[in-house]
Structures are given as C-alpha cells and as structure tokens.
C-alpha cells in the first residue's frame, strides 16, 4: 500500500485550490488540488477497507496502487463504492470495488457477492437477482447460478450485459453519459437518499417528475454546455470526479438540489425549464462536492459542531459549516452568472444581483461567527476577494429567489 505521506492533502499550490479555476491552462491550482485530495482520500479509504472490509479485495486494490497509483485512485474513488465505504458499509463497498476491478480485467480472486444488487456507473447498469441465486465476480466476467439453475457467465461489458438473457439476472440501464466522465443516473444505491436537511423537501428518491427522460438529458446537456462555455475547467473537474446527476422531480418555479458529504461525485436536482438555473444548480452542488471531499482532510472551521446561525439561503437556522458551504457554492455561482451576463440577458443579471446580495449576507455572518482554521481563513480570503469584484458590478437590485440549495 502507498505510504500515507505519498499524497498529503495539504500539498499543492499557493491558495486553497477549492474555489474556481483561473482558466490559464490545464494545470490549474484547482485541478491540482482536486487531484491531490482525491489521492489522499483514496489511500484513506483503502486503509479503512484493509482494516474492516474484504481483505482479498483490499489486497487487490493495494497491488493496483503499487503498480498504477492513478488507476487505483480512479477505482477507489468511483462514487458508489466510495460512498458505501464512507457510510461504513464495507461489504457493499467490497462488492462494488470487486466489480470495478473485474470490469477492468484486473487480477482478483473469485469474489462471491453477498447482496442482491450491483450498480455500476462505468457499466451503466444495475444488476439484481433473486434470493436463491449466487453471483460471483471474476476478472472480466460475472457468473450466476443456483441450486436449480446451471451457472452461466457473462462478460462485464455494457452490450454483453444488456444482451444477456437469463431470468436469474435482471439488467436495468441505469446511467446515460452526458459528457465524458459525467452521467445522468436513473438508479441510485445510496441508502441515505431518504435523509433530507432542507425543510421544503422530503428526501431524494429518484424521480423524473413525470417528465420524459429525453427532456432531462436535453436540459442537463444544455446546462453542461453553458458551464463549458463560461467555466470550462469546472466541467473538467466534474469529469475527473466521475460526476453523476440524479433526478428528483420537476418544479416549473422553484429549483431544489442536494448532495451528501459521503457521496462525493453525485448530486440530486429537480428539472427546471430555465437552463441557466440548471447550470447554477450543477455548479452549486459540485462546489459542495469539492468542499465535502476536502472536509475529510482539512478542517476549515474550529467552531463547535452545534453552532447555529442565520442562513442567507435557507429559512431555517443552519450550522455555521452550512453557511460556509452555501457561500462557497454561491460565490462560484455568481461568477458563472457574471460571465453569462455579457449576453445582456436581463433575467441573468437580475439573478446575479440576487445571488451577490445573499453572498454579502452570508459573508457578514461568517465574519461575525466563523472561527476558521489556517486553510479556512485562506478560503474565506479568496471568497472575499471574488465577492468584492462582484460587488463592484453595476447591477439591478435583488430579485425574488428562483432556486434554493
């Protein structure tokens, strides 16, 4: 296994690398920072699984880490197995990591799956089977059988799985690629998706909200194109994170979205007819993803966990960490709208004015109540600097909020 010091979370360029890229080239501070955090998190998860999970899977992952560290990071930080590991579900994590290793054809002892479902972002499918079936993962293939059925094998390939005809294995298309490394998910294995912190929502069960799947992909692709046009390296960061977008309903007026600290690489969002609103939600939740990943390695605040303050974007009192998350996301959203406002769209400029006003309130709250760590203070300084540029813009007064995060 790689040395714990081989990818320290505090390595990297000056500044936090947690806000927005400067677009001056591929090797930007944010991409380097994200890569460094990903490597540190991969080794953290690997050490944890070696202690409490399937040791044969941990051994295969450690062997890969020695031979090809970058490949190991990508396997370890696949959103689904990493989510299971952070939720202390080592059996589910081991099954999901074994599937990803096998999909890549890597050396792995036959791995008997204990559960009754496997969901793979890379294969794009959800696999389920009855209670009397047994499923074993091998390099490059899956075998399924039971006492009543002969064992059959199928290649771990999307086309082969979809063409596999056996009543013992149900193959459900679960993910559609929107752009390289970014997918629309229709099956979510998150056991905590029912948990919700926002007072206006009841969990995050996957739902198209009565809308056609094509309407969803059209809106998500259009929103990604907007982000690519105005914050291109953010899309590169999303791809690096194997970003998955889950649908959780439709509302023609208000837009709601969510993300989970344990589920880095995933976000939940409702469908909205306005593409800039969809782009805003994606950038907002991806900023949460970056902050959530960093939080496993760098404390940003020293405030007691129960510190509650007024939030600029929520009707309920929020932990001070939640306000920092909101400002960190919405300052990036303001920058997206600032770049979009060059088109002269009045609604974009009005929304920009509203977001800046909320950021101003949020930063005042942080100035008054936050007790930042060293890196937290550096992040607050970066937020203040970019916010000062936004305050200098000539904009209309705040409009009614169209979206709550």
Notes on the protein architecture:
With 405 residues, this protein is an alpha+beta fold. Among the domains are: 174-292, no CATH class; 299-405, no CATH class. The protein is 45% helix and 16% strand. It contains twelve helices and 15 strands. The two termini are 39 Å apart. Mean pLDDT is 90; it is low at 1-14 and 399-405.
Summary of the model, kept short:
By secondary structure, this protein is α+β, with helices and mostly antiparallel strands.
Task: Please specify the SSE layout and strand pairing.
Blueprint: H1 29-52, H2 55-67, H3 69-76, H4 79-86, H5 90-103, E1 111-112, E2 117-120, E3 125-128, E4 133-138, E5 141-146, E6 152-155, H6 158-163, E7 170-173, E8 175-179, E9 182-185, H7 213-230, H8 232-240, E10 243-250, E11 255-258, E12 266-271, H9 275-295, E13 308-309, E14 318-319, H10 320-340, H11 346-369, H12 374-391, E15 403-404
Helix pairs in contact: 1-2, 1-3, 1-8, 2-3, 2-5, 4-5, 7-8, 7-9, 9-10, 10-11, 10-12, 11-12
Strand/helix succession: HHHHHEEEEEEHEEEHHEEEHEEHHHE
Supply Rg: 22 Å
Number of strands: 15
Main sheet strand line-up: 8-9-10-12-11-15
Number of helices: 12
Described by strand count, sense and barrel closure, the largest sheet is:
6 strands, mixed
β-sheet strand percentage? 15-25%
Low-confidence runs: 1-14, 399-405
Average pLDDT, to the nearest integer? 90
What separation lies between the terminal Cα atoms?
39 Å
Principal-axes geometry comes out as globular
Percent of residues in helices = 40-55%
Structural class of the helices, strands and pairings?
alpha+beta
């Amino acid at each position: 296994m790689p040395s714990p010091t081989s990818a320290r979370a505090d390595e990297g360029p000056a500044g936090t690398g947690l806000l927005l890229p400067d677009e001056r080239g591929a090797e930007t501070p944010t991409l380097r920072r994200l890569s460094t955090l990903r490597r540190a998190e991969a080794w953290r998860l690997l050490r944890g699984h070696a202690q409490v999970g399937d040791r044969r899977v941990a051994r295969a992952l450690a062997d890969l880490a020695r031979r090809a560290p970058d490949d190991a990071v990508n396997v370890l930080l696949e959103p689904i197995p990493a989510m299971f590991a952070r939720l202390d579900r080592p059996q589910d994590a081991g099954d999901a990591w074994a599937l990803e290793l096998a999909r890549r054809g890597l050396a792995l002892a036959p791995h008997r799956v204990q559960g009754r479902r496997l969901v793979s972002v890379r294969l794009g499918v959800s696999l389920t089977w009855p209670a009397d079936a047994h499923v074993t993962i091998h390099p490059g293939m899956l075998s399924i059988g039971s006492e009543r059925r002969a064992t059959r094998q199928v290649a771990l390939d999307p086309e082969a799985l979809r063409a596999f005809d056996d009543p013992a294995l149900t193959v459900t298309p679960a993910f559609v690629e929107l752009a390289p490394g970014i997918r629309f998910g229709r099956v979510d294995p998150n056991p905590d998706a029912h948990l919700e912190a926002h007072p206006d929502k009841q969990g995050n069960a996957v739902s198209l909200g009565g809308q056609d799947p094509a309407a969803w992909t059209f809106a998500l692709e259009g929103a990604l194109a907007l982000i690519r046009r105005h914050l291109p390296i953010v899309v590169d960061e999303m791809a690096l994170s194997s970003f998955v977008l889950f649908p959780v309903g439709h509302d023609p007026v208000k837009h709601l979205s969510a993300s989970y600290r344990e589920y880095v690489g995933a976000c939940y969002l409702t469908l909205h007819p306005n593409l800039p609103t969809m782009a805003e939600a994606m950038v907002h939740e991806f900023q949460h993803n970056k902050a959530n990943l960093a939080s496993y390695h760098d404390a940003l605040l020293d405030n007691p966990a129960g510190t509650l303050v007024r939030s600029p974007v929520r009707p309920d009192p929020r932990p001070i960490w939640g306000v920092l998350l909101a400002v960190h996301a919405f300052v990036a959203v303001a920058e997206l709208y600032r770049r979009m406002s060059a088109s002269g769209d009045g609604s974009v400029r009005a929304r920009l004015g509203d977001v800046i006003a909320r950021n101003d309130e949020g930063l005042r709250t942080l100035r008054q109540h936050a007790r930042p760590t060293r890196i937290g203070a550096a992040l607050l300084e970066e937020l203040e600097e970019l916010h000062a540029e936004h305050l200098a813009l000539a904009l209309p007064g705040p409009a009614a909020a169209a979206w709550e995060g």
